[in-house]
Design a protein that fits this description.
191 residues, Lipocalin, ten-stranded antiparallel beta barrel, two-stranded antiparallel ribbon
C-alpha cells in the first residue's frame, strides 16, 4: 500500500482499471490522429465521367474522455477550378464518436440527445444512416450505411491514413454495390 493513500481510493482506482481498460485503450488508438489537416483531392463521378477538384480540411480532436470528434470541410471547386462562384459547393460536417464497449478499435456515432431529450440511435429503415469508425494501425475508417427509399443500400467509406507529413484520404460511395464516386486526396498536418 502507498503511504497516505487511503485503501478505499486504491480499491476504487483498481476497480476502474479492471472494468474499463478498453476505454482508456480506445482513446490511445484515436489520439495519434488528433490534429488539423489541410489539402486537396480529386473526385471521379463515375456515372457521368466528371472530375471535380476539392479542397479538404479535417480536424480530429478528443470527445468526452474516450471518444473523438471528426470535423471536415469539403469545398467542391467550380467547373473552371475556381474557389469562388455560383457553382462552388461547400459542405461542413461535425460528428462525435464514442468507443463501443468490448470492441477496442470500434467507435459508434454518438447518439443525438441533450439534457431534456432521449438519446436515440439512427433507424436505417427510416432512411437514417448508421455510422461507425474503425481504427486499425494508421488508418481511421468511417463507414456510413443507409437504406434508400427504394430499399437499396448506400455505403460510404472514408479512409484517413496517417503519413509522415499528414494524411491521405480515400472516399468511395457505393449504391447497391456499384461505385458512384471515388475521391483521393493528400493533406498536411497544420497542428
Amino acid at each position: 500500500m502507498i503511504p497516505g493513500f487511503p485503501i478505499r481510493a486504491f480499491l476504487v482506482a483498481a476497480a476502474l482499471l479492471v472494468i474499463h481498460p478498453s476505454m482508456a485503450q480506445a482513446n490511445e488508438l484515436a489520439e495519434k490522429f488528433f490534429g488539423s489537416y489541410v489539402g486537396s483531392g480529386t473526385a471521379d463521378i463515375l456515372a457521368t465521367g466528371q472530375k471535380e477538384d476539392r479542397d479538404l480540411d479535417v480536424t480530429i480532436e478528443s470527445f468526452k474522455e474516450d471518444g473523438f470528434t471528426l470535423k471536415w470541410i469539403t469545398v467542391i471547386r467550380g467547373a473552371d477550378g475556381a474557389r469562388t462562384g455560383d457553382d462552388v459547393k461547400r459542405r461542413e460536417v461535425e460528428e462525435h464518436f464514442a468507443p463501443v464497449k468490448d470492441r477496442e478499435n470500434l467507435y459508434l456515432l454518438a447518439s443525438e440527445g441533450g439534457l431534456f431529450q432521449k438519446s436515440e440511435l439512427p433507424n436505417p429503415l427510416l432512411g437514417e444512416a448508421v455510422r461507425w469508425a474503425a481504427v486499425r494501425g494508421n488508418d481511421m475508417t468511417v463507414y456510413s450505411l443507409a437504406i434508400g427509399e427504394d430499399g437499396g443500400s448506400e455505403l460510404q467509406v472514408y479512409r484517413r491514413t496517417l503519413t509522415a507529413k499528414g494524411m491521405d484520404i480515400t472516399f468511395i460511395r457505393l449504391e447497391d454495390e456499384a461505385i458512384q464516386v471515388r475521391v483521393q486526396g493528400k493533406l498536411v498536418r497544420t497542428k
